[in-house]
Every structure is written in C-alpha cells, then in structure tokens.
Amino acid sequence: MQEIADIEQALRRAAPHRLVGVVEDALREHCGALGVELRLADYALRSLQLVGGTAGADPSVPVHDSPQGRAFGAQEPYVLREAESLRLHLPVTVRGDRLGVLTAVLPPDTDLRPLLPALAQLCEALGHEILVAERDTDLYVLARRATRLTLAAEMQWQLLPGRSCARPEFALAAHLEPAYAIFGDNYDWSVSDGRLTLTVTNGMGEGIEAALLTNLAINALRNARRAGLGLADQAALADQAVYAQYRGAAFVSVLLLRFDLATGEVEAVDAGSPRLWRLRGHAVEPVRFDEQLPLGMFEDTAYATERFSVRPGDRLLFGSDGVYGAVSPAGESYGDRALARALRGTRLLPPTHVPQAVLRELAAHHGGGPLDDDALVVCLDWYGTASTVAV
After folding, report:
1. Are the beta carbons of 100 and 111 closer than 8 angstroms?
2. Phi/psi of residue 143, each to 5°?
3. Is the N end or the C end of the chain the one with fewer CB atoms within 10 Å?
4. Which residues are bridge partners to 377 per DSSP?
C-alpha cells in the first residue's frame, strides 16, 4: 500500500464523523476489502463497542473472549481465515493509549505480508484523527459507553488524560471502578522537558460534589505546572484554590510526583491518602513519605518535596483509599497483604493489564459485592534510558 500517505491526507480532510468511511473506501479500493468496522473500548474495558451502524454486526463484543479482544489485549494483528473471507483485526493505539480495534474483511487469498506494516501505520493515523475529531463530534465518545454514565463520571472521564501512555523510558496505565459511576478519584500526567509529572488524586465526598472538587484541584495543579512552578509550589497553589472555594469544608488528597526521565530521580509531595507500592525483583514494599495536609484543609499550607529514585525494571503501583482501605468479610484491609500478593501475581503482565487485574483481585477480596468507595489503580513500569541501564 504505497498510497498510505494519500489515505492519511484523506483522514485529515474528512468530516469528524466520516473517519471510518474514509478508511473503508480506501481499503475497498486498494485491498479489495469487503467490509470494515471500528470498535472502541468501553470505559470499563470490558467490551469493544461498534462505532456507527454496520448491518448484521453485534453492537458490542467482550474484550476477554472475542477475536477483536485478542488483538486489543495482545496489541498485535489477529487473523481469522474463513472459506469466503479473511478477517483481520488490528489494534488502534496512540502513544500507548489503547483505543480499540479496526476489523477489515478481505478476500480469502489476500497476501497479508506486504500489507501489515502499512495497515499498522493506517491504524495509528486513524487513532490520532479520532482524538482530534472528538473535539467536534460525540460519535466516538458515545461508542465508548456500554451504559449511561452518571454526571459525576462524565465529568471525571472528560478530565482524564487517557488510560495509558508509553515512552522509551516508561509505560503507565490506569483504571477506575466503578467506571460508570466514579466521583472523587482521578489521575493526571504530563511529559515534557525530560520530565514526567504524575498526580493521583482522591477528592472527598460523593457524586457531583466530589467531581466538582476534584475538577477544581486538577485544573489548579495544571495551571501551576503550566506556569513553570516547582512541585511544592504547584501543591501550594492548588491548596489555595481549593481553600478559597471551600474554606476547609472540603479537601483533596493527592500524591504528586515528578520523574527525571534521564536519571530516574523522583520528587514527591504527599498531601493525603493516595499510596505507592514498589515491585523491585520479587520484593514488594510500600514507598513511604511524610504525610502532609490535604489540599484545601487549611489556609496557606506550605508543602515540602521529598526524593527517591527508580531503577530500570521497577514497577510502581499507586492506589486510592478505595483500594488499600477495602475490607474483606474477615476484616482484613486489602492494603495489608492482599495487594502485595496481587502485585507479585501480576508481575509478568504488561502495565496496561495490571490495573484491571488488581481491581479484579480487589473485588474478590471484598467478597464480590459493590465496593464501599470508588477505586483507582495506576501502574508505572520504569525502563530508564540507555545511560541509566548501563549504570
């Protein structure tokens, strides 16, 4: 497919809701495709939801028990050869953020070897255009929901940067439960100037009030970060913003970290309840900080940074209080020992699979019923740079 550049141009020129149609037209012309469909992962990462209408297609298929799900989970093409056609399922992923799966139905004698590199490039271009198009159409946002979101959850998902991110130095992923009814938990990240800034947030309260509180805190932290302030000053500015609005009646717990991508040195401000565990080799241990006051509890709180370092091969796991505070029927908190077991048990999984796996373990630990609080898990695998690996 030497015409890939022309298809990318057509995607950029297309109306936001016409992206799948552009891909289908191109694959019909250049590959003899018999049909094309796009499915996006739902908010709970349990199903792949059909974008638009395709005659005879199921509106959703499960992530964990479907051909499309195999391509999505493995992040590799998956082929089904049938008597009259060949079904090619391709992951659609942008900078490590898994969006969904593109399926092309091709003639049964199609030689895939020369096509796969160009189709992978096409899927990446499609993913980029979906993220741009979401500013102007609800089509792709609607396709991601298997059921209706609460208003609080709608606000929180619009605030999130994505579900995963990958760079040569690290890969990270996050998940929230209950996905369609979250309210106070949140996370944020930004990569620039050789640094990764990561925040894990737990706003007090429930429903819309918790979502409003978290929105204020996250945007205050972003405003301070984008003004070039240091980590402690970012916390202080957000603290002032929350206190000015709520006068101490509501506050936000946040763990704020900034990683130096070249050295693995980390600055941290612990302002409340989110906690951090580290898997190094087979050893799991909590990374403890001096707890400082949550944002907005008192006026003009001063914050101080602490430092630690990460090594290539380290896995960091961040959890909100809905994770480590969940109690089993026998009265054992999940954060006491069960979380360490879950972290060891998932050490061979890629980071994109870990948050969901831990949350499944959490649900079983809790007895299978609804959790008492929303729960957030963030997993970060640290690879380092060539220089840090050499050291």
Report:
1. no
2. -65, -25
3. C
4. 175, 319
pLDDT tens-place string over residues 109-133: 999 999 999 999 999 999 999 999 9
What percentage of residues in the chain have a pLDDT greater than 90?
A: 79
Write out the H or E segment, with its range, that includes residue 387. Answer: helix 386-390
Residue 273 tokens read as 């309840």
Per residue in 226-275, pLDDT (tens digit) is 999 999 999 999 999 999 999 999 999 999 999 999 999 999 999 987 89
Tens digits of residue pLDDT in 42-85 = 999 999 999 986 666 778 999 999 999 999 999 999 999 988 99
With tokens 């999505």, the residue in question is 72
Strands across the sheet containing 265-271 = 185-192, 195-203, 252-260, 265-271, 306-309
Mind listing the pLDDT tens digit for each residue in 347-366? Answer: 999 999 999 999 998 888 87
Q: CA nearest 93: which of 23, 161, 146, 162?
A: 162
Predicted local confidence at residue 55, as pLDDT: 61
- Exposure string of 290-309, with b = 16+ CB inside 10 Å and e = fewer, is eebbbbbbeeebebebbeee
Quote the tokens at residue 267.
Answer: 């600055």
List, as one string, the DSSP characters of 209-241. HHHHHHHHHHHHHHHHHHTT--HHHHHHHHHHH
Neighbours of 14 (CB within 10 A): 17
- Which pair of tokens denotes residue 295? 């944002």
Kindly report the pTM of this predicted structure. Answer: 0.93
User: How many Cα atoms within 13 Å fall on the side-chain side of residue 325?
Assistant: 13
Backbone angles phi, psi at 293, to 5 degrees: -65, 140
| Residue 257: partners with Cβ closer than 8 Å, 6 or more residues away | 197, 198, 199, 231, 266, 267, 268, 269
